[in-house]
Structure prediction request, 86 residues.
Amino acid sequence: MDMLYTPLSTPSKGSIGKTGGWRTYKPMVQEDKCVGCNLCVTICPDNTIKLNERKKAFVDYEYCKGCGLCARVCPTNAIRMEREVL
Prediction:
């Protein structure tokens, strides 16, 4: 059964919507652990995670705020939060 969902928000297009610059942690996806379950896509409040053509999660870092919800719901621990390097 396909899940229907609506993101809480969608980033504004262009530089005004880019929020990745003030993030302190960012989600890192380990593709070999990702099973394409779509939980991270569904939970992301800003709609910045998608599944690629291989059905693996990827993050749009220009818009990701680093909230960590995706890492918390991942059943295989394929997403981990890493400190942002300046």
In short: The helical segments are 39-43, 69-73. DSSP finds two helices and four strands in the chain.
